[in-house]
Design brief:
- It is elongated, with a radius of gyration of 16 Å.
- It has a 7-stranded antiparallel β-sheet, with no helix packed on it.
- It is an all-beta fold.
- It is 0% helix and 61% strand.
- The chain starts with 20 loop residues before the first strand and ends with a strand.
């Protein structure tokens, strides 16, 4: 059995919004990697990312699964055209000047597994 018995697919391979099917997210890789996010309204109070650059590869966000806000970070679980990811917007402070800036990080790569709901 093991990991080969799970049918893990990319989000782009899944059918669109099947009734009676939920998605289970499995963390494939945990990492802290800086990314460059494209924002829909940069001057807004709570801007939302529309996509992000990971190196030279662009991922367009198609769906927000969850949003969690903490004191110094906002965590997003997103589904993109290239898979599912956990990203966060972190508030950092320079210890010498006490200036605050925001940074975007990629926290985890996720696999999606469709699971049939029982009624």
């Amino acid at each position: 059995m093991g990991a080969k018995s799970l049918r893990v697919r990319r989000w782009s391979d899944l059918p669109k919004r099947e009734p009676g099917v939920a998605l289970l997210f499995i963390e494939r890789a945990r990492l802290i990697e800086p990314i460059v996010a494209e924002i829909d309204r940069p001057q807004a109070f709570r801007p939302r990312p529309t996509g992000f650059w990971r190196g030279t590869e662009f991922h367009l966000i198609t769906r927000f699964v969850s949003t969690r806000r903490e004191h110094d970070a906002t965590h997003y679980r997103v589904v993109t055209d290239g898979g599912a990811f956990d990203i966060r917007n972190v508030r950092r402070m320079d210890p010498r000047t006490l200036r605050i800036w925001r940074a975007w990080e990629l926290c985890a790569e996720l696999d999606t597994v469709p699971v049939a709901r029982r009624r």
